Backbone:
C-alpha cells in the first residue's frame, strides 16, 4: 500500500512536468513568434514612416520653391556645392543647424555655404531662410545668392563676410592677436547699421519679417566692418506690414536675448518689439565687452550688467562710479539700449525710433524708466510708434 502511494505520486509528478513543458512549447511556439512579428512590423512601419516624412518634407519644400518662383535665386546641384567648397574643406563655423563652409563660385567670388543637418526633419529652417532673406535687399542684411535641395540634402549659399561675426570682436575674453578691439565710433556705427537693418525688416519690406534671434553671433561683418543681419532660421513672416502681434507656439531665440513676452504671454503680445528687446541686450554686450550675465565678476552688483548700468546712471547720462569716461556716442547707446529692454513691449521704441535716437543728439533723449519688472510707464508714450 505504501509503495503504491509513492508510485502514484511519481506518475502524477511526471504528468505535471509534462504539462508545464507542453505549455512552454505553446508559449515559445506561438507567443514569441507573434511578438517578433509585431516588432518586425514596428521596425518596417518606422522605416517607412521616416522615409515618407522625408519624401513629404522634400515635396513640401519643392512646392514652396515652386510657389515662390525660387525668388530669382540660383539653384545648385549638390555636386556643385561640393565642388565650390572643395569637398567641404574649409569650415567657417558650426552650430545646431549644421556647418558653414568657405567656397568659391566659378567667377571667383568667395561665398559662405551653410549645409543644414539632415536631422532637421521638417525643413522649416530651410524654408524660413529662403522665404525671408530671398525677399530682402538691404546693405545691412546678408545676401542669399542661391540654394541646393536634393532629397534630404539642403544647402544655402551666401555672400562671404571676411571679418566673421560680431562676437569675435566684442568680448574681451575672446580677443586674440588675430582680432583687434573695435573702437567706440566703430561700435556705434555697427549698432546703427544693425538698427537700420532691423528697421528695414520690420517696415521696409513688402511683408514684415521678425527675426527672433538677434545676437552678436548672427551679425556678420564685411571687409569694412559693415554689419549684416544673418541666420533667419527662426524668423517669422507677418502677412502684411500692418500686422504687429503674431501667434507663436513655444519660445524662439537664444537665452539672454529673448524678450519676456516670448516665453510668458502675461507681459504682452509677441511682435516686432521682441526683436527690439534682443537688439537692446546685444548693444549692452557691445558696450560692456562681456556677456550681460557674468557670475565671474568680483562685485556681486555687476553680475547683471544692464542692471548695474541703470543703477549708476545719472540724469545727465554719466555713469556714477565708472572707472572710464564714456563718450557721448556710448552714452547714447546706453540710453537707447535701456529703452529697448523695457519689460513691457508697449514701453519699447520701434526700430524706426531707435535709428532716430541713435542719429540724434543725446540732449534730446529722455531718461528711461527702470526696465526691470515695472508697470507700463506713462513717460514712454512718445516711443509707442508701431
Residues:
Amino acid at each position: 500500500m505504501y509503495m503504491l502511494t509513492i508510485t502514484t505520486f511519481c506518475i502524477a509528478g511526471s504528468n505535471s512536468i509534462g504539462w508545464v513543458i507542453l505549455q512552454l512549447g505553446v508559449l515559445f511556439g506561438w507567443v514569441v513568434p507573434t511578438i517578433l512579428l509585431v516588432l518586425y512590423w514596428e521596425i518596417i512601419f518606422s522605416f517607412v514612416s521616416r522615409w515618407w516624412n522625408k519624401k513629404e518634407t522634400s515635396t513640401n519644400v519643392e512646392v514652396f520653391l515652386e510657389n515662390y518662383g525660387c525668388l530669382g535665386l540660383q539653384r545648385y546641384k549638390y555636386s556643385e556645392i561640393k565642388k565650390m567648397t572643395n569637398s567641404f574643406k574649409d569650415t567657417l563655423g558650426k552650430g545646431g543647424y549644421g556647418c558653414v563652409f568657405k567656397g568659391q563660385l566659378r567667377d571667383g567670388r568667395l561665398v559662405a555655404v551653410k549645409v543644414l543637418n539632415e536631422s532637421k526633419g521638417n525643413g522649416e529652417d530651410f524654408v524660413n531662410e529662403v522665404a525671408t532673406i530671398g525677399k530682402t535687399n538691404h546693405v545691412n542684411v546678408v545676401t542669399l545668392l542661391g540654394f541646393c535641395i536634393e532629397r534630404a540634402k539642403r544647402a544655402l549659399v551666401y555672400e562671404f563676410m571676411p571679418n566673421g561675426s560680431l562676437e569675435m570682436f566684442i568680448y574681451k575674453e575672446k580677443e586674440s592677436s588675430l582680432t583687434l578691439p573695435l573702437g567706440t565710433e566703430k561700435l556705434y556705427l555697427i549698432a546703427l547699421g544693425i538698427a537700420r537693418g532691423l528697421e528695414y525688416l520690420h517696415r521696409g519690406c513688402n511683408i514684415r519679417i521678425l527675426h527672433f534671434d538677434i545676437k552678436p553671433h548672427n551679425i556678420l561683418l564685411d571687409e569694412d566692418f559693415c554689419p549684416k543681419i544673418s541666420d533667419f532660421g527662426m524668423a517669422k513672416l507677418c502677412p502684411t506690414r500692418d500686422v504687429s502681434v503674431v501667434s507663436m507656439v513655444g519660445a524662439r531665440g537664444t537665452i539672454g536675448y529673448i524678450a519676456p513676452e516670448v516665453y510668458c504671454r502675461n507681459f504682452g503680445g509677441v511682435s516686432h518689439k521682441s526683436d527690439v528687446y534682443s537688439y537692446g541686450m546685444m548693444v549692452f554686450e557691445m558696450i560692456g565687452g562681456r556677456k550681460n550675465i557674468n557670475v565671474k565678476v568680483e562685485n556681486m552688483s555687476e553680475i547683471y550688467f544692464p542692471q548695474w548700468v541703470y543703477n549708476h546712471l545719472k540724469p545727465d547720462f554719466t555713469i556714477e562710479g565708472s572707472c572710464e569716461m564714456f563718450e557721448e556716442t556710448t552714452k547714447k547707446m546706453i540710453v537707447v539700449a535701456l529703452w529697448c529692454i523695457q519689460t513691457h513691449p508697449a514701453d519699447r521704441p520701434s526700430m524706426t525710433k531707435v535709428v532716430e535716437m541713435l542719429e540724434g543728439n543725446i540732449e534730446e533723449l529722455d531718461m528711461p524708466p527702470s526696465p526691470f519688472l515695472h508697470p507700463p510707464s506713462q513717460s514712454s508714450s512718445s516711443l509707442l510708434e508701431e
Summary: The longest strand covers residues 98-104. The domain at 167-383 is CATH 1.10.510.10 (Transferase(Phosphotransferase); domain 1). The beta strands are 74-75, 91-95, 98-104, 110-116, 144-150, 153-159, 209-210, 219-221, 227-229, 236-237. The CA atoms of residues 82 and 336 lie 45 Å apart.
